[in-house]
Automatic annotation (TrEMBL):
Gene Ontology BP annotations: cysteine metabolic process
Protein name (record): Probable cysteine desulfurase
Domain Aminotransferase class V: 24-393
Organism of derivation: Candidatus Bacteroides avicola
SUPFAM superfamilies to which the protein is assigned, alphabetical: PLP-dependent transferases
EC number: 2.8.1.7
NCBIfam families: sufS
Lineage of the organism: Bacteria, Pseudomonadati, Bacteroidota, Bacteroidia, Bacteroidales
Length: 404
């Protein structure tokens, strides 16, 4: 059912070498490689169907519009949203969060109101809130975690006050791999009458996500992390929330009527999509979602869980190994340090062996401060990685460790 050789054959880049060594790509948390079908969908649209969407009466424009809107339906189905009006196309997770932070704080928050975030957020779920906090006099409250990398839910409960207006939390930590109990956290927030934004950048590629089952008010993700193209992402929002928010950017597409005296805005989701959308990107994204859907998100999750369990066991055999993030529910991300070896040195030497890992603070400096370190090496797995590649990683680390 899960034919790994067939799957790997779908990703041409996996056949290449780096410094004469077969590429071992373990940086999927940063971005994923693209299957041939995604690249072909993009090429095909440029070659055969390219025209600007929504505004044209001519054949090509209508066909491009149909493709673009069909992609919105593919996204809707993928996350089980109620309506395509709730699917806003953006440039990615970062833009989705900035859109929400700007419009939500501007229209629905007052001075001294509070936003709850967590200690393990990516900078893109911290800084947009800080920018707004500075403008509007809003306060950020931070959910702490234990040493295993699990959020402290008792402390979370205590952070709510009558001034709490929004909770923003990552579904899966890009550093620790922790899968946060977002369904439970959303229920808690709703009991206080507070909506929740879930950062799904690291969950969408790895597990089945049903925004209605979670009851998430907002859910955001990036196309490039789920085997789709760069430059396209999604903001899901419940219609009743999106309706209450003002436009983010002004321009074409987002208006109903413009005069110098008064402008009225387009219906959802177009109100939030000023300018020519990345309609080629949305085609690529839809093709990527079709690809992972055909494999089955539950099959991908089971396969990656097996890989991560194997990798954790093998890595722990290495003397001096320190793993960061040992939560009970864990995704396919492993952060580690080995003895006194600087993560940058380890990453650079692994690279010479053809092994691509990420090093540094992973855009989560407050989390690094909490852990008392400056950075880690991070191996993050995707649907095409293998146990053999993990063996190459372990052997590579051993080789570097002996050099030191
Ligand atoms: N949130 C998390 C948890 C991430 O891991 C990332 C990217 O690494 C982002 C947000 C930002 O995603 P993008 O750079 O695609 O906007």
């Amino acid at each position: 059912m899960y034919d790994i050789n067939q799957i790997r054959a779908d990703f041409p880049i996996l056949e290449r070498t780096v410094y004469g060594k077969p590429l071992v790509y373990l940086d999927n948390g940063a971005t994923t490689q693209k299957p041939r079908c995604v690249v072909e969908a993009i090429t095909n649209e440029y070659y055969n169907t390219n025209a600007n969407v929504h505004r044209g009466v001519h054949f090509l424009s209508q066909q491009a519009t149909e493709l673009h809107e069909a992609s919105r339906e593919t996204v809707r189905k993928f996350i089980n949203a109620r309506s395509t009006a709730e699917i806003v196309f953006t440039r990615g997770t970062t833009e989705s969060i900035n859109l929400l932070a700007t419009t939500f704080c501007q229209s629905l928050m007052e001075e001294d109101d509070e936003v709850i975030i967590s200690v393990m957020e990516h900078h893109s779920n911290i800084v947009p809130w800080q920018l707004q906090a500075r403008l509007w006099g809003i306060t950020l409250r931070v959910i702490p975690m234990n040493d295993r990398g699990e959020l402290l839910l008792d402390e979370y409960e205590k952070l709510f006050s009558p001034r709490t207006k929004l909770v923003c939390v990552t579904h899966v930590s890009n550093v620790l791999g922790t899968v946060n109990p977002v369904k439970q956290m959303i229920a808690t927030a709703h009991a206080h009458g507070v909506p929740v934004l879930v950062d799904g950048a690291q969950s969408i590629p790895h597990m089945r996500v049903d925004v209605r089952e979670l009851d998430a008010d907002f859910y955001v993700f990036s196309g490039h992390k789920v085997y789709g193209p760069t430059g396209v992402g999604v903001l899901y929002g419940k219609e009743n929330w999106l309706d209450r928010l003002p436009p983010y950017q002004g321009g074409g597409e987002m208006i109903q009527h413009v005069s110098f005296e008064k402008t009225t805005f387009n219906e959802l989701p177009f109100k939030f999509e000023a300018g020519t959308p990345d309609y080629i990107g949305t085609t690529g994204l839809a093709r990527a979602l079709d690809y992972v859907s055909a494999l089955g998100m539950d099959n991908i999750a089971a396969y990656e869980h097996e890989l991560t369990t194997y990798a954790t066991r093998r890595l722990k055999e290495i003397p001096g190994m320190r793993l960061f993030g040992e939560s009970e529910q864990k995704g396919s991300v492993i952060s580690f340090l080995v003895g006194q070896i600087h993560p940058f040195d380890l990453g650079t030497l692994l690279d010479r062996l053809g092994i691509a890992v990420r090093t540094g603070h992973h855009c989560a400096q407050p989390l690094m401060t909490r852990l008392g370190i400056e950075g880690t090496v991070r191996a993050s797995f995707g649907l095409y990685n293998t146990k053999e590649e993990i063996d190459v990683l372990v052997a590579g680390i051993e080789r570097v460790r002996k050099m030191f």
